[in-house]
Structures are given as C-alpha cells and as structure tokens.
C-alpha cells in the first residue's frame, strides 16, 4: 500500500491554505508540543504549514526509531532561502544532507581531537572564570561568555538566524526566485533582513580562521583544530586546485564550530549556577565530596572531575533539567515513510521534543526537581539503568552533535572548579535588590535561564588563595 494513502499523524485541525500556522506556539513551543501529544494521545504529532508538514516526536522511542534507526532518510534539513541569503549556510549544521554537508562533517571529525587533548585548555578557562568571578561576582553572567573575542558578532548573527527560520514569515520561501529582487523594491522584507545581517554572519564565518591563519604564517599560532587543518591542507593539496576548496571548507567548519559551541556551553553553565542556588543541599553534598577526594590545598583537575561520579551526575542533571536545545535542531525527511501506520511525507520537518523526553516522569521521576542522585546507583557509580540524558540532549542519528564529548568534559571541569571554591547563592543586583531566581527558561531554539545567580562567595580564605594562585 502506498504510504500517501495512509493518514498523517494526528494533530490540531489545519485550516484551508494557512494550515496550522496560527496554532504554532512562539513562546516555549516545547510545552505546546507536549500538550498536543497528550491531547491526541500520541507520541507523534503532525501540524501543517503552507507547503510542509511538521512532525513532532514526543518520546525517546520515536526519536530512536526514526532519527537513529532510519537515519538514511531522516538526516536532511529544511532549506531556508533567507538563511542562505544571510550566508548562514556556511554553517554545515544547516546544510541539506549530501556531499557538501558530508565534506564539512568529515573535516571536523578528522581534526577535532579526542576530549582529553583539550583538558588542559578547559581547565585553564575554568580557572580564569574563577578569578574573574572572585573579582566581580556581580558580573558572573558576563564572565561566562566574555573570554571570546567574537561574542558580539555571534550575538548579532544568531539574532539574524532566529529571524530567518520563522516558518511562513517570508514569501521568498515559497517563491525562491524573489531572492533576486533588489531591496529597494517595496515589500522585500527578506532581502532587507539579509542585507542587514549578512556582513555579521560572514565575519563570524571568516574571522576566527583567518586570525589563526595569519598567526600560523608568522609561526605564532598555538596548536589547535584550525592549525591542524591548515597543516593538513598544505601538506596534501599545496599548489593544487583543491587547496582553496578545502581551505574554504576548513574556514566554514572553524566558524561553525565556534558558533555551535559558544552559546550552547554558556547556556548549560548558566543553568548549573541556577540549579546550585535553588538547591543548596545538592551544592553542600558535592562540596563535601570534593573536599573528601581533593582536599583543600589544590584545585580540581580534569581527571578528578571525570572520576567523581557526583560531578558527572550534576552535569547530566543540568543538561536534563534545563535542556539547552529544548526541541533540538529539526531534521527533515528525504523520502516518504510510514511509522505506526501513519504517512510521513518526504520533505517534512521532524522536530524531536527533547524537553519532553528529558522531563518524562517514567524515566525521571519528579522531572522538574533538580536531583543528580537519580543517576547514582547503589555502588556509588553512575547507574547504567537510568537513561543517560546525554543520549537525548545532543540530538540524534547522523546529525547528532559532534561536540558532545567536548561539551561534557568542559562542563565537568567547570562544575568541579566552581563548587570546590565558591558557595553559590542568588546574590543582589546592581540596585542592591536580591536577584529573584525562577526555574523558568527563556528562548526558543536555544534556551537559557531567565536569571543567573551572582552571589558567588569563596568558601574560605584558603579557597580564595587557591583561586588567586592558580
Ligand atoms: C552543551 C553543549 C551542547 C549541546 C546541548 C549541543 C546540542 C546539539 C544538538 C541538539 C544538535 C543537533 C543534533 C541533531 O540534529 O539531531 C547539535 C548539532 C551540532 N553541534 Fe552541538 N551541542 C553542544 C555543544 C557543541 C560543541 C562544543 C560543538 C563543537 C565542538 C558543537 C558542534 C555542533 C555542530 C557542528 C552541529 C551540527 C551537526 C550537523 O548538522 O551535522 N556543539 N548540537
């Protein structure tokens, strides 16, 4: 039986022409997606927007069945013309599934080293954060992201991206030929938007790589993923036509890695601080564990952080409790498919509701409570019987996050370092009023806590000395 004769998955009733465009939630969409799953008693939901179905996956099992098990047809991405007009398609995370995407992903796989090789840098950065917070705790949130020279560019370019992917907002998505109309023609919103953001996006794409390349040419660049790429391309392709082609790919990959890692890691680091301020008993327990294992005369190292199960459990619980990407990065289907008797059309957008999977009470009882103990078994080690949230939080299948291990080890050393020397409380704002913390999340594609605590005080004079001497 042809799959298109089967019904689509259930969902809110679409209206003629516009479909469900007016039903689409814009604030914390993951909550509405979850509600639809309950209303229609299905872990797979379909909503229609002009020209496309959006299929929402509400359970881990559905995500595994489709995005992992059938990854040969579930690894595409929706093409957004406005994204291309802004030059955001340099980021291979948004490329269609095919040879161009594969060449980029392979370049990253070849040159992103195993996590332990970055441990030294991660520790150094964690300690620099401790020092900055010791000096000006009020600026804690700023310190989490200020060590990056391209922060402002990332912020503006990211704003452009989130405007570009609003479903149904631009006529050019339905008639791509319109992209060639110049911006002075009335009504060409998309062109104006693209012209406004493209220079920032191109800077994000080019600047990190070009800076390293210039330093490398002067013999001054410390070894990094970018220098590895430059060396590899020079050794293999110098003087051939491929040289510039591969260099362009390397530049895209370095820019994309930068863009994909900065805000995500910052978001998780903020959520951790929030959880500690809201759950002081978790904080106390982790601190006594650190005191027992590390003592008070040195700071933790990456080896300690990975070897203390409770620190790892706090990292896992942070990624679960307040997921960085609550509905992942949508995939798309490159062929028709059938699942549970439903037709999944080719070209559908497939949205894994990561928030719902990580807040499912069957896997994680009392899901809204921050409770890292849930991951610790009788033996005191990580319990393999509790579903590891990092299987969900970093996406699925061939598109799954290539920076997952890097991100986890960054988080572990950061968490151990902060807890070892600071007590974390809400703190007071610039007007001297206590910061009001809530477990509410803000954002869409990328979520953050609304407020981040800034009441970080050294646990003792000895702790303050450790920070200053580091
Ligand atoms: C807490 C930190 C992070 C989280 C929660 C996170 C999460 C994700 C998710 C959910 C996706 C989409 C996966 C899918 O399509 O199913 C993704 C993609 C991606 N991530 Fe991460 N990520 C993090 C950190 C990083 C880091 C540190 C890097 C770089 C080393 C990175 C590089 C990428 C790239 C390049 C993609 C696009 C992959 C593709 O489309 O082929 N991410 N990430």
From TrEMBL:
Name recorded for this polypeptide: Cytochrome P450
Keywords: Heme, Iron, Metal-binding, Monooxygenase, Oxidoreductase, Signal
S-adenosyl-L-methionine recorded as keyword: no
Cofactor: heme
Record family assignment: Belongs to the cytochrome P450 family.
Organism superkingdom: Eukaryota
Binding site for heme: 401
One annotated GO molecular function: oxidoreductase activity, acting on paired donors, with incorporation or reduction of molecular oxygen
Pathway connected to this protein: Secondary metabolite biosynthesis
Pfam hit, one: p450
Lineage: Eukaryota, Fungi, Dikarya, Basidiomycota, Agaricomycotina
Gene3D superfamilies to which the protein is assigned, alphabetical: Cytochrome P450
């Amino acid at each position: 039986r042809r799959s298109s004769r089967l019904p689509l998955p259930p969902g809110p009733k679409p209206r003629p022409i516009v479909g469900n465009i007016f039903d689409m939630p814009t604030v914390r969409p993951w909550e509405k997606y979850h509600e639809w799953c309950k209303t229609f008693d299905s872990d797979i939901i379909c909503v229609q927007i002009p020209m496309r179905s959006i299929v929402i996956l509400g359970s881990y099992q559905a995500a595994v069945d489709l995005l992992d098990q059938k990854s040969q047809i579930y690894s595409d991405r929706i093409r957004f013309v406005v994204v291309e007009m802004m030059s955001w398609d340099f980021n291979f995370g948004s490329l269609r599934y095919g040879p161009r995407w594969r060449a980029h992903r392979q370049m990253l796989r070849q040159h992103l080293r195993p996590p332990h090789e970055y441990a030294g840098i991660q520790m150094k950065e964690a300690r620099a954060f401790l020092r900055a917070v010791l000096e000006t705790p009020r600026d804690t949130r700023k310190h989490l992201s200020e060590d990056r020279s391209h922060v402002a560019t990332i912020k503006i370019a990211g704003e452009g991206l989130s405007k570009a992917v609003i479903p149904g907002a631009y006529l050019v998505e339905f008639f791509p030929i319109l992209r060639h109309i110049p911006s002075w023609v009335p009504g060409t919103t998309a062109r104006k938007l693209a012209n406004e953001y493209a220079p920032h996006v191109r800077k994000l794409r080019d600047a990190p790589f070009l800076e390293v390349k210039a330093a490398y040419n002067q013999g001054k660049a410390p070894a990094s993923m970018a220098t590895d790429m430059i060396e590899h391309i020079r050794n293999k392709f110098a003087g051939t036509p491929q040289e510039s082609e591969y260099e362009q790919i390397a530049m895209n990959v370095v820019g994309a890695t930068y863009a994909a890692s900065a805000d995500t890691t910052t978001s998780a680091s903020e959520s951790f601080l929030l959880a500690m301020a809201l759950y002081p008993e978790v904080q106390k327990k982790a601190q006594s564990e650190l005191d027992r294992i590390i003592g008070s005369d040195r700071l933790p190292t990456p080896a300690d952080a990975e070897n203390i199960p409770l620190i790892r459990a706090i990292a896992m619980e942070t990624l679960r409790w307040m997921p960085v990407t609550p509905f992942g990065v949508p995939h798309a289907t490159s062929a028709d498919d059938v699942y549970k008797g439903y037709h999944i059309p080719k070209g559908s957008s497939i949205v894994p509701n990561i928030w719902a999977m990580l807040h499912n009470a069957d896997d994680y009882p009392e899901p809204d409570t921050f409770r890292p103990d849930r991951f610790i078994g009788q033996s005191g080690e990580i319990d393999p019987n509790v579903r590891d949230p990092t299987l969900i939080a970093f996406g699925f299948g061939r598109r799954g996050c290539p920076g997952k291990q890097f991100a986890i080890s960054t988080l572990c050393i950061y968490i151990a370092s902060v807890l070892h020397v600071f007590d974390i409380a809400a703190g007071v704002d610039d007007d001297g009023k206590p910061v009001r913390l809530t477990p509410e999340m803000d954002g869409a594609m990328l979520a953050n806590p609304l407020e981040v605590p800034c009441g970080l005080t050294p646990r003792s004079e000895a702790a303050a000395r450790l920070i200053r001497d580091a």
